[in-house]
Amino acid sequence: MTVGQLQELGLFEYTLKRSRRRKTVAIKVQQQNVTVYAPVGVAKKELESWLLSKTDWINAQINKQSQMLDTRQYPLQDNRVLVFSQPVKLVYGVSSRSAWQLVKKQQENVLQLNLSGRVKHQQPMYQTLLESFLHEQLENYIEMRVHAYCLKMAEALPSSIRIHTYKRRWGSCNRRRELTFNLLLVSAPQTIIDYVIVHELAHLKYLNHSAAFWQRVSEFYPDYKQATKWLKQHGASLQWVVE
Ligand SMILES: [Zn+2]
């Protein structure tokens, strides 16, 4: 029997499973979880330098799988989503063309999701529409804050910013200065999103979690310990639809 142990390497986590019968090393990325299978004899250092050389491939697999997660089901009744920790009521309707509209009705934020009457499979289309709304909210906010923090940190802008749905990470950064952020962050308070932004921007200088890296984070986000605690406590329960 092999028992997996969660490891942290550079910028990603993986489960290491060693076996006496194995002759070769293999990586499996499934549902965004990285598992590494290795023979008992392979030294951890050797294994990790090989894994680091595969980082781009691993991230590409995780990104690909994040698209598949987006098909989660939403109950189509009157319910609410959290946008920057504020509740927004969802109202589903039909109109001449598919579009969303954010309005304020009696002190309440209401997101009107309208589908064209010609749409056949309505539920997945309402989901797509809701996601495009959430994506836009988060993207606008992150782009604005990335610009502001890059100025403060005297850092050149990242080469790209993408948003995906991830199970186990809030953001990522690689050697090509490409940043990604988890769409679920749209439900968190903006101060928490700011922390994730500073964290990823600090990786532009240090592609690791060294003391120097945390020093840079704390310089531009002094409350980072509180933010990481918040994400640990509430991160797992971040979801858009609240009853
Ligand atoms: Zn990090």
Structure description:
- With 243 residues, this protein is of the alpha/beta class.
- It folds into 2 domains: 5-69, no CATH class; 80-242, 2-Layer Sandwich (Zincin-like).
- Helix content is 37%, strand content 29%.
- The chain contains 6 helices and 12 strands.
- A 5-stranded mixed sheet has the order 7-8-6-5-12, covered by helices on one side. A 4-stranded mixed sheet has the order 1-2-4-3. It has a 3-stranded mixed sheet with strand order 9-11-10, sandwiched between helices.
- β1 (5-9) and β2 form a beta hairpin.
- Residues 69-77 have low confidence and may be disordered.
- Bound molecules: zinc ion (ZN).
- Zinc ion binds at residues 11, 199, 203, 209.
Short descriptors:
single chain, about 240 residues, Zincin-like, 2 domains, five-stranded mixed β-sheet, 6 helices, 12 strands, about 30% strand, binds zinc ion
Low-confidence stretches: 69-77
> So what's the overall shape?
globular
User: Ligands bound here?
Assistant: zinc ion
SS summary, helix count: 6
Distance between the termini: 42 Å
The CATH homologous superfamily of the largest domain is called Metalloproteases ("zincins"), catalytic domain
Which CATH class of the largest domain applies here? Alpha Beta
What radius of gyration results from the CA coordinates? 21 Å
Tally of individual domains: 2
Chain oligomer state: single chain
The overall average pLDDT, rounded, is 86
Lay out the secondary structure.
Blueprint: E1 5-9, E2 12-19, E3 26-30, E4 33-39, H1 44-53, H2 55-69, E5 80-83, E6 86-95, E7 99-105, E8 108-116, H3 122-152, E9 160-164, E10 171-173, E11 178-182, H4 190-202, H5 211-220, H6 224-234, E12 241-242
Parallel strand pairs: 2-4, 6-8, 9-11
Antiparallel strand pairs: 1-2, 3-4, 5-6, 5-12, 7-8, 10-11
Bound molecules: zinc ion.
